[in-house]
Amino acid sequence: GVMRRALIMCALAACALVAPLAAIAGARSPVAHTLPTPVLAPGLTRAEHTALVRSGAYGQKPITMLLVGDSIALTLGIGLSVDSQQRYGITISNHSTLGCDLDPTLPVLTSDKIGPATAGCSEWRALWPFLTAGVHPEVVALGLGRWETSDHYFEGHWVHIGQPVWDAHVASDLRQAIAIFQTFGAKVVLLTMPYIDPPDLQPDGQPFVENTPARTQDYNRVVAQVARADPGEVTAMALNHMLSPGGTYTATVDGVLARWSDNIHVSNAGGEFLQRDILPIVDRLGLSVEKTWAEARARGAKSRTTKTAASP
Question: H-type helices in 184-267, by residue range?
Fold first, then answer.
């Protein structure tokens, strides 16, 4: 009888202890596991917003965009990343560099001075596959043009964008970069080059030729041609139009100071302002990639199940 009473008392004590623990766990679990409800961001439809919520983009499975390219891309990415997951379900892995010339071995003419190419992307053919494999992005954005618009000494001649020989060479480099990203299943965004207006001028007060709108337009035509050759996989994104809706350089867009004082780079406020134009496109591309990856996983699982069932 004594033993039985002791067991009953222990059971009652255990129940008394478990009850408050369960109550505490129940009270805490919504706080620990429920994220704030995301707000519909500018540029997204209600259906796209719902799809992002269901995919977990605002939680543990954000869409990832790898950003590579030159210093204009680098500065764009800083503002573009501000609260990007809370607003658009996107994380941005910014691996752009100061000075990204895809042809680092060629002499370059800038401000009427001959010098070596910038070395920021000297190892891009070896580095970008490792970056893409490590980041595993749904979308890769490539922003270039600042150096491609300069004269280069190529195959024994000084050439520049707008000339067929250099246009073809730049297009070839872009296609090689795109092929790297596509190998890992990513969609590719090619950013057009924005208009620039740096303060350094020629003695006659005119801009150096690599800084002129004509060079920018010639480079952007190459970008558009490369994108058109691979529809559905490569998207040309008109950064020049977003930053210069009037077709000429301006430091301010819709009241936002979008450029640095050097009249080249994108300000933090400018990058954040451009979220509404850029990130909805990244969301749509990212969701399509995630759907493709999910279908591939399902096919793989079905194939493994079939093979297992067929095994003796």
Answer: 213-228, 239-243
Q: Which residues pair with 157 in a beta bridge?
A: 154
**CA dihedral of 71, 224, 135, 128, whole degrees rounded to 10:** -70
CA gyration radius, the chain: 27
Residue 78 near residue 268, CB atoms below 8 Å: yes
Q: pLDDT tens digits for 272-281?
A: 999 999 999 9
Question: 63-69 and 151-154 as β-strands: parallel, antiparallel, unpaired?
Answer: unpaired
* Residue whose pair of structure tokens reads 């043009």 in the numeric block: 145
* Threshold 0.90, pTM exceeds: no
Sorted by sequence, the CB contacts under 8 Å of residue 277 that are 6+ apart come out as 43, 242
pLDDT of residue 2: 39
H or E stretch at 67: strand 63-69
Closest residue by Cα to residue 137 from 277, 293, 268, 278: 293
Two tokens at 274? 């451009």
- DSSP state for residue 163 in the 8-state scheme: S
Which three-class secondary structure state does DSSP give residue 169? helix
